[in-house]
Amino acid sequence: MLPQRNRIRKNADFGLVCRQGRALFCGKLILKTRRSDLDVVRLGISVGISYSPKAVVRNRAKRQIREFFSKNLQKIQPSWDVVVIVQKGWGESGYPLSELGECLAKCGLIKNISPTTNIK
RNA sequence: AAAGCAAAUUGGGUAAUUACUCUAAAUCAUUUCGGUGAGUUGGAGAGGAAAGUCCGGACAUUUACCCCGCCUCGGCGGGGAAGGGUAAUGGGUAACACCCAUACGGAGUAAUCCGCGAGGUGCGAGCAGAGACGCUUUUGCUAGCGAUAGCAAAGGCAUCCUGAGCAAUCAGGGUGAAUCUUUGAUAUAAGCUUGAGGCAUGCCGAAGUCGAAAGAUGGGGCCUGCCCUGAGUAAAGUCGAAGGGUGAAACGGCUAAAUCCUUAUCUGAAUGCAAGGUCGUGUCCCAAUGCAAAUUGGGAAGUGCCGCUUGAGGUUUUGAGCAAUCAAGAUCCCAGAUAAAUUAUUACCAAGGAAUUUUUCCAAACAGAAUCCGGCUUAUAGAUUUGCUUUGAUA
RNA sequence: GCGCCUAUAGCUCAGUCGGUAGAGCAGUUGCCUUUUAAGCAAACGGUCCCAAGUUCGAGUCUUGGUGGGCGCA
Description:
Structural class: alpha+beta
Strand content: 15-25%
Largest sheet: 4 strands, mixed
Number of strands: 4
CATH topology: Ribosomal Protein S5, domain 2
Strand order of the largest sheet: 1-2-4-3
Shape: globular
């Protein structure tokens, strides 16, 4: 789990990132990124009820994404806000988290990625 | 041993490293001395349904109708009506539509399971029509395979008398009542009572019944028994060959409102912790006062804290009770988040399946607290225990 | 989290007190017109969301489920 300073905790910040941030598409995931004034990376995850009606499934998807970010927290460049929106159909057979790393590296948010983080 | 029924328990465990939430302790930094921040160590961290939101409470805020009483005169207290629920009998409970016991009805060989169950009314609320439901039987004739239909005559219920029969009962006569409709009188919450009078029970038609079908019937549905004489048998109030009476409507039996009416009984109502509070905090807007600075009041969108977890609590002992449950004692503290924690990885053990022969592989249900409790309902892989029933075998 | 509404023909909706389900539009066929549109007429089209119960009989009443939608700081 991420420490408190690495989370987006206010509804207004969520709105700002979602409206003004750059969008990245990574399969069924949508990443919204926006530069902030703080010197740390902040993460927010949005999983709607249309992803799955069961709360267990939604919570599991959130945990998987959080775990990936907490492992690669040192490699991501600071002072960025990221919101991950999970769309329907993601994670039906395993959780493809290495794609997420490549996607972040492509736009220069990650310095050196490690390709061995495909968690079952 | 097989099949079945009921009840209860469990919903993997241990260890290591790691992340997060809450909490306790001391340390450091800062401070407006209230706190705030940082890392360290210890403790705790999802369910039997956390779900559906179908009932019932606790808790919080607001408040309507009528009457009575009190006073500080706009509040308090009490009662009622309306509305809403419930419905065998009794008990339990804070309360319930829940639970327990007993009786009754139904299903099953049985263990056992199921039952929203008071009383009344009594069923096309279709069509036409001013008006539509109290209705059927016996005898004779005609038609039809039949259910039945048409025409004519005579009837029905209660009670009394006369006659017939061993009897149940039947026949004749007298008296009285009832059903339906209309009008009038009287009375009324619906209604009921008394008097008088009269019959278009038409067309279509669901279930059921009859029929091979066509069709007929169909004004809730279903049921067929009961009584007398009595050969006989060891015996007969009880079993019973055979015969007879009655069996139609019914004021015969059972059943039918989960939509109507009545009765009994319970209950103020509405909104739901996003209730609501805050002698918290800044921002924006409006109004008043003011030369201005500013102050006061109101509103808007944010945000912090309280509400928030010690409770109709858990475990256990004793007692009361058939039981549900209750009482007393001992002991324990057991999630409290807010873009929302409860994670990830590894090893071993236990248990399941498949291959195979001592190892390998696979899979592991339903499902995630959000104010808190008591129930109900729905979803649920597997494992364990206890009691009981039936059938078969052996002793 | 708390509290509500709704499901009927291809589409939009009626259906009161249980008696066997309709309206408009669309589609089909015919008439009218030189032809199309408009208009007129006819027929077609329904698991009344699913399951159980009450009832002689359920779209309607009762209970449970499924889908869709809405409000509240």
